[in-house]
Every structure is written in C-alpha cells, then in structure tokens.
Amino acid sequence: MFLNSEFAKRFEPRGDGYLFRERLGAPGYEVSAAERDEFVEQFNRRMTWMNWGLFGGGFVLLLGAAWLSVELAFTDPGPLIFAAMGLMFAGYMPAILWLWGDPKRRLAARAAAVPGLDKASARREGLRKLDWSRLGLCVLFAVFLVFKAYGEDPSFGSGWSRAWLALAAALLIVAAVQAVRKWRIETRS
Length: 189
What we know:
Blueprint: H1 2-9, E1 11-14, E2 17-21, E3 28-31, H2 33-71, H3 78-100, H4 102-107, H5 119-129, H6 132-152, H7 159-188
Antiparallel strand pairs: 1-2, 2-3
C-alpha cells in the first residue's frame, strides 16, 4: 500500500541502524533496525485493521444512507450518500494521522541524534526524494481532467468544463515547475 511504503521511507538507513525524522526539517532520532521493523510492522498491522474497519463501517453507513433515502422517499439520495462518505473519512483521517505520529511520540524522550535541516536543505532533499513517476502521474491525472471537461461540454463552454480545464492547467503548471526544480537539483549534485 502507498501509505505503508511512505511510512517506511521515513526511516533513513544510517550505519547499522536508521535515522527517523518526522519531516525533513525536524530533528533526527537514531533507532535500531529492530525498532524500525517494529514501527513499520505495527503501522502496517494497524493500517490493515483500519482499512477493514473503513470497509465495514462504510458498508454499514452506505446501507443506512440507502435505507434512509428509501424510507424518507428522497428523489436524490446523492447528498445523503456523500454525507455518509464524509462521516467515514472524518473518522479515518484523524486515526491515520495518529498512527503516522506514533514514532514521534514514542521517541520524544530521546535526545535528537542530528538537528533538523534548514528550509533550503529540506526543500532540496524533498525534491531529491520525489519520484519522477509521481510527476508523470500528475500529468496523467491532468489529461484525465481534460477528458472529464470534454465529457461535461465538448465545446468547453460551460462553467464546470472550464473549471476542470483550469484545474488541469494548474496541475500541469505545478508538475512542470517541480520537474524543472528537481532536474536542476539532480544536475547540480
């Protein structure tokens, strides 16, 4: 899963152990390989339980929304279903953030092994770690948005069609700027 691999990447190899940083600008804490494996395994296990809980809870909420829309004879059950989905994620997101911060809470009593990176160094390191494939996915998503806009109105004249096009253009601009910045960082190194 995406979050599982991103969580594991927060532990950078260092000697015979690892260095944990909450974010690039935060101080780094040394952890052993066993501690790192425990953190990652615990995160993966808890995420599995949370995903099953989201699936089960979401199923119950959506069934409840569907039942309510039939009982109350709603002509458009869409808002009720979106409200149920919002409730699902309103409980899911804080739980993910709590899991994400677990290493920081457990390592708070330790002295930092290295200070946090300054803002410019953190930006360079973040761009260095950014995969080219993610920038490519941004471009593919922008193409999808163009097709979505075309589906709304083939002449691109309606408000929603223009909104999708504007979002696609903004996404392409951001991806292009990040690609140029990443390329400059990589060619200087």
